[in-house]
Amino acid sequence: MNTLAVMRLELRRLFVRPLAWVLAGLTLAELGWRFVLLLGNFLGVQIKLAALPGGPGFTDMVAVPLLSSLLTGGLVPFGLTELAIVVVPLLTMSTLAGERGGGTLRLLLATGTPAWAMVLGKYLAICIWMALWLVLVLLMPLSLAHGTHLDWGKLAAASLGVALLLATLAAIGVACSAYASHPAVAATASLLLVLGLLMVNLGAQTAGVANGLIDWLALGTHLETMLRGGHRAEARLMRAWRRLDGWLLALALVLCAGAVGYLSTRHNLVSDWTTGGRASLSVETRAVLAKLDGPVDIVSYASPQGRLRQTVAAFIARYTAVKPDLRLRFVDPTLDPAAMRELGVSVDGALIVHYRDREQHLDELSERSLSNALERLARGGERIIGFVTGDGERQADGKANADLGMFIGQLESRGVRAVPLNFSQVSAVPEGTDLVVLASPTAPLAPGAVQALLDYLAGGGNLLWLTEPGNDDLGLAPLAAALSVQVLPGVLVDGSGSALGLGDPRMITVGQYPAHPVTAGLRLTTLFPQAAALAQVSNAAWAVVPILRSGPQSWTEFQPISNTGSSTIRYDASLGELKGPLDFGFALSRLSPSPGKSVQRAMVIGDGDFLSNSYLGNGGNRALGERMFDWLLGDDELVDMPVRGAPDRVLRLSQGELNLLSFVFLLALPALLLLAGGLIAWRRRRR
Amino acid sequence: MLIADTPPLLQLTQVGRRRGGRLAVSGLDLAVRRGEVVGLLGINGAGKSTTLSMIAGALAPDSGRITLDGTDFVEHPELARHLVGWLPERAPVWPELTVLEHLHAHGRLRGLAGAGLREACARVLGQLELQALDRRLAGALSQGQRQRLGLACALLHGPALLVLDEPASALDPVQVAGLRSLIRAQAAAGVAVILSTHVLAEVTAVCDRVAIMHGGVLRHDGPVGSDGQAGLERLFFDIAVRGQPAASASGAAA
After folding, report:
1. How far apart are CA A568 and CA A565, in angstroms?
2. Mean pLDDT in residue range A532-543
């Protein structure tokens, strides 16, 4: 009963003071600004999102980041959670420290109100204020519910999480106020404590450790110490208890928060409320994890700066929850760049997954890519790749600059075995060959070799053909015809490379890729020295997808370019030079002629240097090469991941509605709150 | 029936309390009966406010026993809710609340609600002449008005024991006279009153008994003597200067 009376008193004091209104008004103005920015950002990309079946939606990109930028990052640094770290200490600082300083604490105690009831009543009042604050913030995304299909489950889960966090912050604030002699001391202590806990969490996440234990142990130790104080006579114990019970309750509130955190680290009671279960691992991924009967070690080469390690840790935690012996370790890639090059790590956040004596490299952080990598590791066995030799091709195990030894060496650690394929010794591609690579021959191939390759293709075999400029007289025209591809004369040149400091116009860079399984999610720039342009020949036999394309300033240069001195080149249409954009990489697929396979795949790239020992480390060359081989070997989609896109990827919102929302949440609502606070204070002081 | 014949409403037995590392009250024995007005005197630091805080239930004693209406007050501090009304020194208030909001808050904390609460508020507003100030912020009140507000809060729930710590410290002479009448009226209604003050005339005017503390110890407890304020002054200064009453002075006071 007295708890309610104290709660009502505290609420009354909160709502008649300008502080609570000013805090609410200012924070809502900031959050309204954040909301408008997030909304504008979402509207800018929603056309792209609509085309991505598995893409994020309004709830992911606007509603949740509005509540917190701790997890999601964002355009503006402060979400509601971050603001609460500052706001809650200001609200709670006077709850008990202020009463003590003003002498009213004695009055409350003299009403027979137990100290615990006093602390609880004040805590509940703060919680009610924060609940109203949260509701006002939630009005922002909810005001657009009519224009999309909100992910209600995810929004509810995020709101509940934030509500619990606010309750925890309030508990810490009230506890600090109970111990402090002055409100300012209470606010400072509360802020430092929350920031400290935040740092502990951030540190634990950065190190890849989910840790609620530290908080739990510290709080438990404090409580235990206080309880151990009572070893005297019973009467003295009772008196001591009465003096402490309020403070103990404040401590208990914090303890409860710590206990919940601790329990959450010990027990996997997970309930996924998102539409389509987007927050949990798919059944397919769980099945892959079940196949792995030994420990899996994942090394993330993510630099400690920024949020990348947190993101990686949170992502891997979903796997660890299902497979506890899947371990994550971080290595700072900036400490030893040479070792990173040796490992083929070229992107911040790259993962190398180790299972038994095999490993897989990942440059993309997605359930699809990691689950496929795990499936490849689980499957074991060797994939045989036949490298055509004897015609001046790049050597699969060669260490010369032009050879592919470094790249193939890395592929072999992924369960691939490269074998030479010399058609002077064998008349056909041996059975069991998963892929044949024809890597930049420099001498004409014997007709028999070409025929063997044609037979191999006709039999449903997969092929990678790396060709080079000027290789049009090597007797490979039948092979090109069979693949519906024509190698265009001349060498591709592109002036735009000078912006990247490339002095040689034959260095072609590619930074944008089409939506194809080989290049999906690839954001690294790849470098192709001396590429030949390709053209697609009309033929219904293959589905041909261009995956590499030069810039609009490129063309096929027919004049020789000196490797040592300077040369003058210009586009000359009269010579038959073709102007860009020009394709120089094709991915081909068709229904396999072989009854044992479903799909036949081939790839023609107008350059072989990009995978050579000299250029493998440039940008995303290695990553592109791995993706190409994964696709050609059929390893890209071992796990058929279901598409689990957000239901609110499309938001129907007129310009008028957008303007109205901006006005209401950015100006009107905050101004109304500030006005209400000012009006209340003014009216009460006039009496 | 005489007051002396009734059982004590409040009984302190060997009560002690340390504050700030020193013994603020030691071995205190004191009994107050219904309808009795007891004046508590002492120089600053004598232990009066600590004693009153313990009697009001705001502070628990370190040792000894306090009974209220025959029940152990330390074991049952909730007794203060209905039985005790307390006006602390300087009458602390919540400056952002109005006079009426104060009364409502105190009433709810004392278990009043609805019509009972409204009637009690109207009654004490009338008694303390605070009707005109009922919507005034407590932070904007003069010290005297705050004293009256504090007294109104103490009287709101009709306590059996009224504990007043220097209630007249900021009142004008007219209000002091009104306060004395109020105290006597409360005593006549059977309320036990403990009045702490530095004004000896106030004790002789309204108190039945006087208790004098010095150094945390009760040095004198007896009825207000027939020689009135002069005798009380001699007694008080003897205790304040010498630490104990002179034989003659004690006798005169008694």
Report:
1. 10
2. 84
Computed over every residue of chain A, the mean pLDDT equals: 81
Cβ proximity of A598 and A591 under 8 Å? yes
Instruction: State the smallest CA–CA distance between residue A103 and chain B in angstroms.
Output: 5
Q: Compute φ and ψ for A364, nearest 5 degrees.
A: -115, 135
Cβ of A102 within 8 Å of Cβ of B94? The answer is yes
Q: Which residues on B lie below 8 Å from A241 (Cβ)? A: none
* Residue A448 · residue A390 · CB < 8 Å: no
Give the 3-state secondary structure of residue A27.
helix
> What pLDDT does residue A605 have?
94
Torsion of CA B149, B154, B155, B156, to 10 degrees: 80
CA distance A643 to A371: 14
ipTM of this predicted complex?
0.88
Q: Do A106 and B88 touch (CB under 8 A)?
A: yes
Q: How sure is the predictor about B153, in pLDDT bands with cuts at 50, 70 and 90? A: very high
Residue to mutate among B65, B84, B94, with most A CBs inside 10 A, is: B94
In degrees and rounded to multiples of 5, residue A568 shows phi and psi of -110, 125
Query: How crowded is the C-beta side of A140, counted as CA atoms within 13 Å?
Result: 36
User: Which of A617, A620, A610 is CA-nearest to residue A362?
Assistant: A620
- pLDDT at residue number A259: 59
Write out pLDDT tens, residues A39-49. Answer: 988 888 887 77
Give residue A162's Cα distance to chain centre: 21
Strands (E), A363-425: 383-389, 416-422
| Strand order from edge to edge, sheet including A296-301 | A326-330, A296-301, A350-355, A358-362
User: Which of the residues B81, B96, B103 would you substitute to probe the A interface, choosing the one with the greatest number of A C-beta atoms within 10 Å?
Assistant: B96
Decide: A321 and A354 in contact? Cβ < 8 Å. Answer: no
Burial of B151 by CB count in 10 Å (0-12 exposed, 13-18 middle, 19+ buried)?
A: buried
**pTM (predicted TM-score):** 0.68
Q: Which residues pair with A420 in a beta bridge?
A: A387
The CA distance from A265 to the nearest CA of chain B, in Å, is 41
pLDDT given at position A416: 80
* Beta carbons of A114 and B78 less than 8 Å apart: yes
Q: Nearest residue on chain B to A9, judged by CA atoms?
A: B105
Residues 157-186 of B with CB under 8 A from A: none
Q: A26 CA to chain B: closest CA distance, Å?
A: 22
Query: Cβ B74–A239 below 8 Å, yes or no?
Result: yes
| pLDDT for the residue numbered A153 | 84
Mutation pick from A107, A109, A687 vs chain B, by most beta carbons of B within 10 Å, is A107
- Token pair, residue B124, equals 């004490």
CB contact under 8 A, B98 and A684: yes
**Cis omega (within 30 of 0) on the bond before A18?**
no
User: Which of A4, A112, A685 lies at the smallest CB-CB distance from B78?
Assistant: A112
